[in-house]
Structure formats: structure tokens, C-alpha cells
Specification:
17 strands, alpha/beta, seven-stranded parallel sheet, single chain
């Protein structure tokens, strides 16, 4: 199958490229080579075309003969402040809209979309008395007092996290999250109006070789790694008990191949996760122990306004409808990541 892969030079895109090619697909690779993702002197990989997907005229030639688009291109990270909003809106929202329009014009009706866990907002929780609840945002007084768990909006009791499935409400809490929700909504509307097939892969905390270093847009695993390389202990916010699902980039790539080869109609969202939750403190501890530098994480007790306490995924749908199950256990994968090369 001939596949157009956007964002092909990025951390995830480069692994998706290798996985698709390894599965026997012909890959047409494109990337805008933005400095935020590729550094101050971005170099286009061999075989990759420099294309900004917002440019309809540049897209048309690379879509020729394509049967499926695997759309990884996006500006990532939560955003530093509100000044980042036009960047997210331009690249993620408008870029996706242009891509979908050009796909329609070219007669292409299959899309695999890179989405994210951030669409779920603060996750899913249960009160011991009232069951499943949508907790209120954490109060500053609780956070200042070191009370980091959410409370039940009815009785005020602390609530426990639950796995989030794909039917959970979409409640974006950052600029990036808002742009990923917008991408999904554009793709859903396109699938219904064009009779197309969309698989939206909601990536959880991806990590692995080639991950960007400690920029404001990097993942926490890379930030911890960079600190250790500098001889500094990783600094953990709150009490370190924040639960996440860390999924290796090679598993993310495998999920894309599964989605590309799946026979789906309409719009399907699927979590891409390991299914094995791990706390942020455990992530930092695994990296420290693997490096063997005698470092231990520093729990700061500090917090960042708007941070999500827990977000843990349900892997069932990806297994059921795509046949995808992650192969890399986070604890083993993070041990390997302790010495893996980083980007930029």
C-alpha cells in the first residue's frame, strides 16, 4: 500500500516510517522540519520531502497514487503560554483541515490520525460513596497544603483514578489538547461527509530513543534523562504519585501499522498505551537506578497550575478492533531509555 506519512522526520514519525516500510508498505515521507521539533539547524532525512501541510499546492503532488494518509505532523507540548495559541491553531487545526480537503480532492478516503491522551483532560475518577464522578479542579489551598488528590464534587472525599476508555468526554485543558480535539473533530466530520475511514490513535506518554531533549515541549522522561546527564537529580512535582501510562515509541509505531492495515469504517478512536500504569516518581527512580550514578529523585512538593493528577488508559479497544497490544513493559523500556540517544 502507498502511504503518505506526515511528520515523518519527527521522534514518532521516524519510527512509524521504519515500521510501515518494514511491513512492506511504500512510504511517501513529508515533514515541515520546524525548529521547535528539529533544532536550530534542521536537516531533512534522506528520502523525505520538505512539505508544509498547510500548503495545498505542495500537498497535491505527494498525494498522487496514495491509498492512505498517516498523519503524525503536529506542534506538540502543552504550550508555554497563550501566545502559542496561533501556532497550534495554524499547524494542527488548519494544517489538518487543508490535508483533509486535499485528500478528498485526490480521492483518498483512509486516514490514521495521531491524537493524544490530552483530549481526556483530567481523566476519570471514582468516589467511594458516589461512584464515577467528574471532580472539580484542584484548589490552590489543597495544593499548597500538599493535598494533591481530587475531591468528590458532592461530598468532598478524595477520589481514586480509573482507567479512561475512548468513550470518556473530551475535555481539553491546554492549547495542545484543544488542537488535538479539533483535529479529531475535523477528521470525524470528514469521515461522515466523505464516507472515509479514520482511526484516531490517542497516544499516551510516548518515550524512547530519539526523544527530544529538555525543551518546554519535551516529555517528562526526557527531562529526567537530561537532568541525570548533567549530574543533577530529577525533580519530581507534587508527591510523585501522579499515575501515567508510558508507551514505548516502537509500540506506538506498531499501533500505526495495525491501524493502517485494519479494515475499519467511519471514525474509530483507540488508546495507544502499555496498559501498565506507573507513577512519575517510579519513572524517575527507574531511570536513576538504571544509570547507576547514585542519584535519587528529589520530590519538590511544588506544583504547576493546570497539571493533570492522573491519566491512565484502558487498552481494551485497541486490542479488540486493531489487534494491537504493547510489547514493551514500561519498567524494562525505561531502563533501556536511561542510555538511549536523545534528539537535539
Amino acid at each position: 500500500m502507498r502511504v503518505l506519512l506526515t511528520g515523518a522526520a519527527g521522534f514518532i514519525g521516524s519510527r512509524v516510517h521504519a515500521a510501515l516500510a518494514g511491513a512492506g508498505h511504500e512510504v511517501v515521507a513529508v515533514d515541515a522540519m520546524l525548529r521547535t521539533a528539529h533544532g536550530s539547524d534542521p536537516r531533512l532525512p534522506d528520502g523525505c520531502h520538505r512539505v508544509d501541510i498547510r500548503d495545498a499546492d505542495a500537498l497535491a503532488p505527494v498525494l498522487a497514487g496514495v491509498e492512505l494518509v498517516c498523519h503524525q505532523a503536529a506542534v506538540v507540548g502543552a504550550g508555554v503560554d497563550s501566545a502559542d495559541a496561533p501556532t497550534y491553531g495554524s499547524h494542527n487545526d488548519f494544517g489538518t483541515a487543508v490535508l483533509l480537503a486535499q485528500m478528498f480532492a485526490a480521492g483518498i478516503r483512509r486516514l490514521v490520525l495521531a491524537s493524544s491522551m490530552v483530549v481526556y483532560g483530567q481523566g476519570r475518577y471514582a468516589c467511594p460513596v458516589h461512584g464515577s464522578v467528574e471532580p472539580l479542579p484542584r484548589s490552590r489551598s489543597d495544593l499548597d497544603a500538599g493535598v494533591f488528590e481530587h475531591r468528590c464534587p458532592t461530598c468532598g472525599a478524595q477520589v481514586a483514578w480509573q482507567r479512561v476508555d475512548e468513550d470518556a468526554p473530551l475535555r481539553p485543558r491546554s492549547l495542545y489538547a484543544a488542537s488535538k480535539v479539533a483535529q479529531e473533530h475535523y477528521a470525524l466530520a470528514w469521515s461522515e461527509s466523505a464516507g472515509g475511514s479514520v482511526v484516531a490513535l490517542r497516544y499516551h506518554n510516548a518515550y524512547g530513543p530519539g526523544m527530544p531533549r529538555d525543551t518546554p515541549y519535551s516529555g517528562v522522561a526526557a527531562i529526567f534523562r537530561s537532568a541525570l546527564e548533567k549530574g543533577q537529580p530529577p525533580k519530581v512535582f507534587e508527591d510523585g504519585g501522579q499515575m501515567r501510562d508510558f508507551v514505548h515509541v516502537d509500540d506506538v509505531a506498531a499501533a500505526n501499522v495495525a491501524a493502517a492495515e485494519a479494515d475499519r469504517c467511519g471514525f474509530t478512536a483507540a488508546n495507544v498505551c502499555s496498559g501498565k500504569p506507573i507513577s512519575i516518581l517510579q519513572v524517575a527512580t527507574v531511570l536513576c537506578r538504571a544509570r547507576g550514578d547514585g542519584m535519587t529523585p528529589v520530590i519538590t512538593g511544588g506544583y504547576r497550575s493546570g497539571d493533570v493528577r492522573h491519566i491512565v488508559a484502558d487498552p481494551a479497544r485497541a486490542a479488540d478492533v486493531l489487534g494491537f497490544r504493547a510489547a514493551v513493559d514500561p519498567r524494562a523500556g525505561l531502563c533501556d531509555f536511561a542510555f538511549a540517544p536523545l534528539r537535539g
